[in-house]
Batch of 3 targets.
Target 1
Amino acid sequence: MSQAARIAALQDTTARPGRTVEWPQVNGSPAYVSKTFGVNVFSLKTLAETLPKSVYARFIQQIKGRQTLDRPTADAVAHAVRVWAQDRGATHFTHWFQPQTGTTAEKHDCFLTMKTVFSGGIEETTAIDAFSGSQLLQSEPDASSFPNGGMRTTFEARGYTIWDTTSPMFLRKGPHGTSILYIPSVFISYNGEALDEKTILLRSSEVLSNAAVKLLNLLGDKESKRVYATLGTEQEFFLIDRSLYNLRPDLKITGRTLLGVVPPKHQQLEDHYFGQIPSRVLAALSECELDLYKLGVPIKTRHNEVAPNQFEMAPIFEEASVAVDHNLLTMETLHQVAHRHKLKVLFHEKPFKGVNGSGKHCNWSLSTDQGDNLLDPTLKPETNYRFLLFLVATLDAVHKHGGLLRASIASASNEHRLGANEAPPGIVSAFLGDHLNEVLNSIEENRSVRNFSQPHLQTVKVGGTVLDVKVSTLPTIARDLTDRNRTSPFAFTGNKFEFRAAGSKQSPSLPIVLLNAAVTASITEVTEALIKQKGAKAEPSIDDILSVVRVYITQSKNIRFEGNNYSDEWVKEAEKRGLPNIRSCPVAFRQLLEAKNASLLISLGILTDGELKSRFHILMEKYAKDLLIEANTLKTMVLQGVLPAAFSYRKELTDSLVGQKALGLDFSASPEKSLLDLLTKLTADVQAAANTLVAAIDRINGLEGDEQADAAGTELTVILEDVRSKTDA
């Protein structure tokens, strides 16, 4: 970039007026958030107010899966939602779906239709507003133009979006004061194959519920008819000024800087984390929250993250399928609001080298339709046998299918973050904390739980403790039963597991799908083991339960690790335990096709063999394309920007030395001479590295399929870093 362009961008950032948005008012005061929440959502309450009771009751039975959604009910719902939406300025509707691109897709259709009427024997065409049940239920986008892994071809383009009745419809702002009705949908091919992220999420949720309910019934719980995964996604991101962003082709094209050194002051003073949110950023986040509240997204927290210009927003947990919708809505809304504030939001996991990157911590648990959290240990987990069974089933799932979980968080962008002493490595392990570890160890060893009450011991007292900070004016502080291990990829945090390894840029759908699948299989195994253990008895005894729990504690023990996952010692220890350390994306993606993993997904009905293979090929193809885009961007920047600037600077130094010689000065010891010598060497290094990059791009472009991804992973990643290091020098 030119010096003048950078100066102009900096001047623009300081001279630009801030943007303000009026918060909704009630009697001259800002409205409570609860009064704003969900106003743009077509909720069940709203539907109940607009439909006849009999039609509404029929619809509720249909969305619970107890009967098929019939045409009259669909027509009634379509009419009700059209009137509601148009009364709020809607002109168009769209089936909003999640293709395998990591983002969402939509095609807008107007409510307008034409109707022919006859009046006095004269035919006349009249414009009317209409929205039928069939239009609500499905639409038809082009299936061949989305990633399909070879399942669809251009001459088999038909695909369908189908309304997901479990996720509420909502309104978003359109142009010129209008709005658009969004219909959350799944996306399938003409033959019914899943082409999206949501279909498989709904499938995984259903099989998980069936398995969990069966185990609950065995334990005597006849009330719970459904179990669902809950999810809360902590979304990290960077916000930078748009004027400066526009000067960086690497940021614009790839989402990260491909060259550039860290500034003298970055995060080394540890003063940004939880610091005061900059006023301009706070204004943007507040406006984003307002939009999200209206959409029914329960955003709870906002704060500065570790790296400069890095922030986080996190919601209250919800049912996983809705939580995924809301996370994608959060990302899209952040993007739109940032534009309004002349900012740019960066979701790339590692946009800037030398400072922390961003993750998407997926807080996952299991809940019944009676409101019980199945992973709540309560104060005495050693006697909470239901909790113990679901806990060991989850640990068993992570132990048996850690490769699947590693595949779920693999991407070209997240590869920069994993194992970088800011995120978990490619080794999947679980953290429980001292309390639960002691409980499991005591069961395994068939002894009583130790009560660690001595303050000098580095353990927590079973049943929880309180902290005394020796300040009389402070209240008693309760300490949680588990600590937080920020280095663990799968950490238990009170009443849930935090899957910390997911990347900030990706949809949380695939990690949750594969976690649900693995846990479903283990719950089924635990249930079968418990049935066998109890024998002819109506219900299993406590001894029966503990016998089964003890087996699964022992066989999943290798996955439990309480120490520093960033350390070299853990890498060695994990190898001794037989835990895979998967460092590259192609190796991670191949875990999907491993016999035990493929059998799991196919046998549960979450993916067909064709769907599984297509997803593998899509992931491999995207990985290769991402790296080739980065390589071509860096090639252009070096050849058209860096080297010409170096040549120009070298000419300035040469001209200076020529001038000194013309004056009869001895320039052999001149500072320009030593600088010119160094610059010449560095420039030659960059030129050579760029030539290597160009040759690699040409060679890899000539490859096809999985070979291209493998070559890009082994060659381009190394060459890109080499070019950067030489350029930065």
Note: Residues 623-728 form a domain with the Four Helix Bundle (Hemerythrin (Met), subunit A) fold (CATH 1.20.120.1560).
Target 2
Amino acid sequence: MKKSLKAFKRIFTYIAPYKISFIMAFLMAIITLVVNAVLPYVTGLPTTKVAENLKNGETVDFDYIWKILLILLIVGSIYCITNFLSQVFMTNVVQHSMRDLRRDIDQKINRLPVSYFDKNQFGEVLSRVTNDVDAVSNALQQSFISIVNALLGIVLAISAMLILNAKLAIIVIIIIPLSIIISKTIISISQKYFKAQQDSLGDLNGFVQENLTGYNVLKLYGREEQTIKDFSKVNNRLAHNGFRAAAISGLMMPLVNLTAYSSYIGVAVAGSYFIMQGALTLGNLQAFIQYVWQVSQPMGQITQLSSVIQSASAATERIFEILDEPEEILNEVDIPLPETIHGDVSFENVSFSYDPKKPLIQNFTVEVKRGQTVAVVGPTGAGKTTLINLLMRFYDVTDGAIKIDGIDTRKMNRSDVRSLFGMVLQDAWLYNDSIGENIRFGNLDATDYEVVDAAKTANVDHFIRTMPDGYNMQINEEGDNVSLGQKQLLTIARAVISDPKILILDEATSSVDTRLESLIQKAMDKVMEGRTSFVIAHRLSTIRNADLILVMDQGQIIEQGNHETLIAKKGFYEKLYNSQFQNEAE
């Protein structure tokens, strides 16, 4: 409960910039409630007047009644207008504050280290940005002002009852602590299930996102039945937690209503007695019954909204969990980039491990000269991709240093380090926009001429011009309206337009046929010309011309040299090369 209250307090920091609209919403709400508190008393005046006329044998004073009805019409109009304005102001506050919250989450995601996304499903992160923020937004929009109105309404209704008849008001006041005790007990039991419900919803989103992304592979291996079973487990867990949360919180309404109905009976009996004693008028008893409703109805409203509030509470905790995640460590002193970067790279006694108990790279040392092409080869799990992650500062070294032109990258701003690199990955990523904009992603300030020039360098210009709308053709959300090889060429063009000092090619030709491999290889040769390049390749035939080949195994360089030198050694590389050559021949 304390954690939820702390999270809700932090939500109000997003409301603070819109305090004028927030205050106006409250002001309109207070006017609405005051008017609402006056209505029962005014409504009871005609009844009292008619009862007096009949008691005294007089004709009914219709002039008085018409005046009261006119007053009721004016008061009712004020009620409707102020209630509407209260909702308008509150909507403005909620929508703008939630916009700011989503902006902060988006900015936070961009500041999180790569390791966070290695440990968390994308669907789970997406659920916090969408579902959890929506839950908080709905609670603030639908519940917050309603609960404040309910609490103020109860205070005003009780004040009016105390003025009319203090003894009768005590009967109604008794229901409030009873309702609070009931509500607090049920909330304490159900809150953990609301938290579990939001967690399960995040798991479900993660599962769906993961399986839709790999839908073709799922179908290929006939895993539909197993996937349905796995989905059922997650879905049933969500249903189980949702049912418990709703069922337990659902007890609140009938129990609170039971106390309210008891107060109705008590007021009716005691009120009749006071009328007979002459201590209360009939119209005031009528007003009292309406005031009882003005107390019980808000109490019921609060209990109805309790499930929404508890969902929002759980969602708020999850939102601030991601906002409180440790960010990429900023350097105390950032050495500015030199005006000219040559591209000399050195690894000096580098050690690194994802888990301190399981060392991966130890005392790794190598020096790469500007303009050299360095191939990194080795079996799966040897540490090839980890080496690139360290070079890009996706992770920082545990010990030792990586230097570019003699400058330790840990003393440089991360964005400056990464601005030196162009990268072509094995899994080509395109986003939902035109082909031209996908290429321009490497340099957002590039002109149309530069986009076309980069496409020509990457051997993809001809393909683009054969497509409908050419450079304006839209890549769909899945990126599957172009082939895998064409995607790869487009990502090479993206790397070209960024004009990097150092190029990284991570398995760039591993998933294409021989013809496309040749085309991609020619494009890469053009791009690598004059640049320091790191190439990770499973197809060893593609790196024969590399200036330096690093052979890695279990995080260590076990051999290094050019192709001819390593073949002549008849060591690990020679066995790896020959086994691959034989497999390709077979």
Note: The longest strand covers residues 345-352.
Target 3
Amino acid sequence: MKRRRGNMRRGALVLFVFFATLFLILTGRFLYLQITGEANGEPLAAEAAKQHLKTEKIEAKRGSILDQKGEVIAEDSSTYTLFAVVSDKFSKTSKEPNYVVDKDKTAEVLAKYISISKADILDRLDKKEVYQVEFGKAGKNLSVELKNKIEKEKLPGINFTRQASRFYPNGTFASQLIGFAQQTEGESGESSLTGKMGLEKSYNSILTGKDGEINYSTDKLGYILPNAKKNVTEAKDGNDITLTLDKKIQTFLEDTLTTVNAKYKPTNMMAVVMNPKTGEILAMSQRPSFNPTTRAGLSSENAGVWQDLPVEYAYEPGSVMKIFSLASAIDTGVYNPNGYYQSGIYRVGDIPIHDHNGGAGWGTITYREGVERSSNVAFATLLDKMGTDTFEKYLTKFGFGQKTGIQLPNEASGKILYHYPVEKVTTVFGQGTTVSMMQMLQGASAIASDGKMKLPYVVSKTTDPNTNKEVKTETKITGAPISAETAKKTRNELKEVVSGEHGTGKLYAIPGYTVAGKTGTSQIADPKTGKYMTGSNNYIFSFMGMAPADDPELIMYVTMQQPQLEGSETGGAAVSEVFNPVMKNSLQYMNIKPAEEEKMAKVAVPNYSGKSVQDAKKAISESKLIPVVVGNGKKVVQQIPQQANKLMEGERVIIMTDGDMTIPDMTNWSRDDAQKVSEITGISFSFKGTGYVTNQSVSAGTILNEDSNVVLTMKKPNEISAFNQNKDQTNQDKIRQDTNIEENAGVGDLLTQ
């Protein structure tokens, strides 16, 4: 018994010593904290202040993107996320509770504004052991208007959080150029607006501002304390970017592309309007495209929509390349518009290069007519005259095979294919060699102005809103590949492509304005086989035009790849549905008045009977009339109209010779002109349709007699050029089947024969 008591006493003593020691330690620690005011070397006052010190971020505004007149293209906006406080933990005793009091009423009201049912809202509001709830996708990305409507309902416990977003008020509007920005989470876990494509991405560091912050003291519930000191670091907003785009012209282009895209459904389509005097791009778009606000049309399956095609896509330009081949020939002095050459077929060794009418050509014609007709043979012979080395130097001076340096990412450089003799010939008419649209526009600026080449650019200036400091982009001359005189002469020849009798670009004429330009129909290489695709739709159809031709204010370049054509529809007609309305509306919008139509002089017709055919043709041509020879003799025996009649400049004079009667080529003639041939030969012609001749049953040069049956098919004026292009396309298909070489013959076909 005594031993047990002794053990108990010893145990009690141990406990007493333990608790006494603990008490002394705690008391000592407490006294130390009281006296020194520090814990582990840190001031207690500072630690206490931290618990009540709040920091809020002051978001910097992302810079806006504006058109040249200051119209908004992209700007910051706000969206809101709806949430509900369902716990009464912090406001149970408050006079104005900050939690959902009446769940049924709250659910009923919210169901009117967000796309979620009342029952689903109640399920969320009834969740236990949570402080607040959100409403999924239905409660996110709410507009400020919708937020204001919900706030007017004065529902306790309903609150919003704000997120910065990007707003593009014009919808599909130079979308690949502008790109888009979206909320992206950084390494620190905070999210911010970040450019993901286009200018939003490449100028992200310039557009992005620097956030500020505000520090202040609060009570335990988070309310700001009275007389609390605030520390503020101001935010620095991002720079604004002003573009060279003109909203009005860009809208013309977007609306037109949308309409034409719906009609022809091409694989892709590109169009750019540029001021050749400065290099400013006034409008630029493509199809496929997308809406940067909603992202509608932007999908991972459609790779083309992610590319800024006018900048990033390299393609074979086709006959539009002849613009630069012609300028090079003029600049070297080898182009004589009135000189003659034999059209039809040109040979590179054993390889034939055909004109686009099956290699038949048009006989011995002038180079000017060859340019009008887009004769490959004409340009192949001009290449002989100037030399392949000389032409290669001009290609380099025009900027082909190298990036232009436009302020946009992923620019294509293209490639000059110029190793073998046939490649050098095909390059002169735009096959084999690849280019970008920016290169073509840069080169064309030299032809449209004074021979000086301008760099295309899209950013006019950047402005720092914090200091109002501006950094402007100046026009940059990137070379002078041709003289001012050559530029003027080239435009004069290109005018004939649109307005000349044999011009392939008649579809692109704009009433009241002179247009200089060139059509193109280029083949597309199949990436699987390496050969060119076949079929009437498998081409890139294009047109580059400048107006007014004498002193161009605008250049417009349109390409359309693989449109879905039906019946008599042609690629050229499809392209004209983009070029014509946009160019015309843009010229009118810029107050460029239509030129007054020149009054055509009347010319008296002398008597040519008894003269040699050559002398008569020369005299008629010098009178600015068009000689038409019927027969294969050497002397003129009859004419229509007769002597003393007066004709307008440009009208036809029919002369009959002393040989066999032959029928001329009456393509594009009016019925009245065709009747003159019927009258002078005494053979009745039959006419099908109205308008102008698109087909004749008896081919040109055929000898006529009393039994000849001549049937002329006519079409209306707006159909005639389309018919001719369709006819050329049929011929091209035939040539392709026979030799794989046609108007835009390329090395790919030649190497796989």
Note: Confidence is low (pLDDT under 50) at residues 720-753.
